[in-house]
Amino acid sequence: AQVSALKINIAIRQNNFTGLNLKSLNQKKLLAWSPYATYNLGSAYARSGNFEQAEFYFNELNDLESEESALTKKELWALQDKAATAMGYTFLAQKKYDLAVKQFTRVRLDTHLSHQALLGLGWAYLSQQEYEAALSPWQLLSQRSLSLPAAQESILALPFAYEKLQSPGDALAA
User: Fold this and answer.
1) How far apart are CA 171 and CA 174, in angstroms?
2) pLDDT of amino acid 92
């Protein structure tokens, strides 16, 4: 199983992944590595600018149930959170803000990726001129460890959102 997964990763690394498909990823040879290969393939398509294919693979991963996978629930959830965060930022870059919000809100708050998702969620709301909605994820994020770059950025973003809401006093206090 590891050898098959490694071959897929080598093909992705060499930008020779267009011949890979879901059928090849779900081979019995891959076993527990199939969700990882699905995520890696989605990431490769996103990096290459083929966002439709990236979305397809990330959605396949997000639709997996833990009973369908040999991974533990926590492993699968971590991969799904990673895929949702990646898709959120992909949609943000494409100016599809409502889809970005949908992806960012799929990420669980108790994971190591939640800070990135909260930051992106705030920017997605702000981009839709929903300044009040942007405050909530950034306020939550600003209470986290300041060693996180996302928390630092939220501290800078909060006054900007308050300014947009015509609330200079809150902007100064933030």
Assistant:
1) 5
2) 94
**Percent over 90 (pLDDT), the chain:** 50
pLDDT recorded at residue 91: 94
DSSP 31: G
Distances (CA, A) of 58 to 27, 63, 110, 165: 18, 9, 20, 35
* pLDDT, tens digit (0-9, with 9 covering 90-100), for 73-109: 888 899 999 999 999 999 999 999 999 999 999 999 9
Secondary structure tally for the chain: helices H, strands E: 10, 0
Q: What is the CA radius of gyration of the chain?
A: 18
Rounded Cα distance, 112 and 148, in Å: 11
The torsion region of residue 156 among left (phi > 0), alpha (psi -120 to 50) and beta comes to alpha
Angstrom distance (rounded) from CA 155 to CA 108: 21
Query: How many Å apart are CA 48 and CA 80, to the nearest integer?
Result: 21
Structural contact between residues 85 and 46, judged by C-beta atoms closer than 8 angstroms:
no
d(C-alpha 69, C-alpha 63), whole Å: 11
d(C-alpha 41, C-alpha 37), whole Å: 6
* Structure-block tokens of residue 67: 């009973």
CA distance 73 to 138: 28
